[in-house]
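Problem statement: downstream parser choked on a complex file, so we are re-checking the raw output for the adenosine monophosphate run. The parser issue turned out to be on our end (a line-ending mismatch), but while we're here, posting the original submission so the record is complete.
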Amino acid sequence: MTEKKKFQAIKGTRDLLPPETELWNRVEQTAREVFGTFGFGEIRPPIFEPTELFARAVGGETDIVSKEMYSFEDHDFGELEKLRSVLLIRELELENPQSASLHKGQLTEFNAGLEAGMKGRKIPVTPVNERALADLKMHTAKIEILRSDYTGGEWQARERFNASVTGIRQALRVVKFGDVISLRPEATASVCRAYIEHGMHALPQPVKLYYTGPMFRRERPQKGRYRQFYQIGAEVLEMVPPNQDPAKSIGKDAAVDAEVIEMVMAFFAQLGLEGVKLEINSIGDRECRPKYVELLRAELLKVKDKLGPDSQRRIETNPLRVLDSKLESEQGIIAGLPKIADHLCANCAGQYAEVKRQLGMRGVAYAENWRLVRGLDYYMRTTFEITARGLGSQNAVCGGGRYDGLVELLGGPPTKGIGFAIGEDRLILSLQEAGKGGAAQGRDVFVAWMGEKAQATAITAAQKLRAAGFRVELPPVEQKFGKALGQADKLGARYALILGDDEVATGQWTVKTLADGSQAKVSEAEFLEMLRKGKALSS
Ligand code: AMP
């Protein structure tokens, strides 16, 4: 007997089911409406992109890129891949010329396959692959000669043989049959890539785009943290005209930042999200931040012994992240560290002041948090984070900031950018905690029918009601009226439309209002009218 396997959703992923999905749809619909009023259009980028795009944009040293991406090689060379595994795992051994003779056919086959793939440009012709192919051919020929030297006992060519086997194994490991691609861990990089790819700098600037969809990060799952999670985000991109004086655009950039933040807050207000707190900061730019980071590093080195291992490591790798620390014992030390606000260059300080003034003009309440640094490399100047109630330790529902220069880093023209990403899973959790989940969808009408003639009427009635936009449940087989009414009740139907021989003959339908049990005979037109007005029979 075959074993019965119980399939389950992969750790860190989950099914979103009705009625909860109704709330998801409402949230996304509200985003579309609110963002639309601010002039944003939707972009739907692909879910996977070259790994290199994320490494470049998000930063190779960030946790997201270095540890958390789902990546794989995308190619059509399954057979070569298998051959490679066989050669690496089983066949080709050091010190073992017999294995060399065993594997010979496979190695030759592999080399020929690789060469043909590269010639046909189906396997990327990269310097790494070219070098690997050359090494493979050279070492394959070598071991073929060396192996024939072997007569048992002491073996002159042993070292050279081993060196060639090692060379082959190394070359096999580095060959890439296709591009390495990753499931997107965030979407800003994709939006910037699309901006460049479609020449959006030629459109009226700024270009305002929003997106919704799943992101993938291999994090440790917990409440509010998943490996497949959903973001709703928006980006404003604007090409910088040549010779623009950076000091002159400070006011404009600040207004754009403030409007983007205002838009998220308007969206949250529209949803009725509770306990919303907005924190803002400026993390400087390429001019002033490096100097501040050095100052911070120097100060941190003075207190290194008092810091935990994570922060100690970050003194070297990324001192700004120490400010993020939640470790109780470090809080006192961090409070005494130099604050970036005191070390901003004139342009950054000017823009930060203007962002605050602009938020004030828009009636957006905020708190300043000088310790707010964001985990992604691309941010500069304005950064912000929004938290909401009911989420425990994972209470950030939105993070965002300015990222001038990112488009350029990805090969596009000099471009300014600002955007945010909302964690939709957390947003939904917070709404549910506050009792804003909404009721189950229910039905407007449950059609209870009995008899063949009644079924024909029931089908036409259901078609008309559905066409008029009402939610209709039409049972596939006839049911006794008592049972049908019970089911209508369970489904949360507003009305039961009862169709038997009588109703078909007279054209007068029996309609029961489930909330109060009242019942009446009405014509089709009267029933539609009742539904439109949402009336109970008794009223
Ligand atoms: P980030 O792209 O890291 O700035 O994240 C923006 C927002 O996405 C955060 O504020 C969270 O609300 C949400 N988020 C990030 N990672 C996860 C995750 N693993 N699970 C659920 N939500 C997440």
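For whoever reads this later: The first helix runs from residue 20 to 37.
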